[in-house]
Design a protein that fits this description.
By secondary structure, this protein is α/β, with parallel strands linked by helices. Helix content is 44%, strand content 18%. The longest helix is centred in the C-terminal third of the chain and has 17 residues.
């Protein structure tokens, strides 16, 4: 894509199939999508691309979602970037939930259907534009 649209999402998921499926669905909605398959690549891309919002897998090798968020939020330009953490772990501990709230991230439990993905993404983009938290669905 040669031209950056007004709405850019970065998807970070070590499962390439999941990342590609999410990206395909969002591109059909007219959203520019970038994908990364590790936390390190996602951090680099977040700095370079400056996405409007991030969809982040919680469980990744080496650096999990919480570790990624701590590193992301260290940079001033990324402190307000809306993030939703997507996880297959329905029973995240209270401590992890508290960390995610502290790091200003929302949580969605997999499986995430197409309708949920699109509405969550629209809510993230709305939050970026208006500075409000995403409401749980």
């Amino acid at each position: 894509m040669s031209e950056q649209s007004a709405e850019t999402i970065l998807i970070i998921d070590d499962d390439v199939v999941v990342a590609q499926a999410f990206a395909m669905a969002l591109r059909r909605e007219g959203i520019q999508v970038w994908t990364a398959h590790s936390a390190d690549d996602g951090l680099r891309d977040a700095q370079q691309i400056r996405p409007d919002a991030i969809i982040l897998d919680f469980r990744m090798p080496l650096i999990n979602g919480v570790g990624f968020l701590y590193r992301l939020r260290e940079k001033e330009c990324n402190r307000r970037t809306p993030v939703v953490v997507v996880t297959g772990e329905a029973a995240l501990t209270d401590e992890v939930h508290a960390q995610l709230r502290e790091l200003d991230a929302d949580v969605r439990i997999k499986p995430v259907g197409l309708h949920d993905l699109i509405s969550t993404t629209r809510a993230l983009l709305h939050r970026q534009a208006h500075g409000r938290r995403v409401q749980p669905s």
